Amino acid sequence: MKKEQEDQELKSEEVYLDSNLFIKSIISITAEGEKAREVISKIKNGEYNAHTSTLTLDEVMWVVQKFKDKETAYEAGKTLMRATNINFISVGIEIISKSLEIYKNTPLDPRDSIHLATMQSKGIKTIISQDSDFDKIKDIKRLDFSK
């Protein structure tokens, strides 16, 4: 499939954004970080119908604080919360309950199980992520933003 064709299909498709997209856009100065920033720019321009979990804020701030500092993590959190064209899905007890089932029955770690349960709660079938563990889950498609 041609890149233009794939981009066009994503415009009409719901996509879920894994935290590594945001993390790489903040801490990576390599081509990988640049590609992450390009995807985020497309989201800001309304080219994707994007969703993520409220858990993503925690993950982003935790990693940014670890690699940078607390102030940078705080600013990253504020920026993420104000991001345009991203729908934040609250993680409540129903999603957590579903994530436990996913965790038990798949190779995903606990946080990725929460992300998958969050996606499933809204019927989202595509995730933008570098995490190849999602490739082991049938019925979802992973788009690696770094490629």
Show the helix and strand layout.
Elements: H1 3-11, E1 14-17, H2 19-27, H3 31-44, E2 49-53, H4 54-67, H5 70-81, E3 86-89, H6 93-105, H7 110-121, E4 126-128, E5 141-143
Parallel strand pairs: 1-2, 1-4, 2-3, 4-5
Gist?
This protein has 147 residues and is of the alpha/beta class.
**What percent of residues adopt helix (DSSP H or I)?**
55-70%
Cα(first) to Cα(last) distance is 14 Å
CATH homologous superfamily annotation:
5'-nuclease
Task: State the CATH architecture.
Answer: 3-Layer(aba) Sandwich
Structural class label: alpha/beta
Over the alpha carbons, how many angstroms does the gyration radius reach? Answer: 15 Å
Name the shape in a single word. Answer: globular
Encode the helix/strand succession as letters. Answer: HEHHEHHEHHEE
What's the level 1 CATH class?
Alpha Beta
Overall mean pLDDT score? Answer: 91
Q: Count of helical segments?
A: 7
Unreliable residue stretches: none
Q: How does the major sheet shape up?
A: 5 strands, parallel
How many domains, as an integer?
1
Strand element count: 5
CATH topology: Rossmann fold
Beta content comes to 5-15%
Strand order of the largest sheet: 3-2-1-4-5
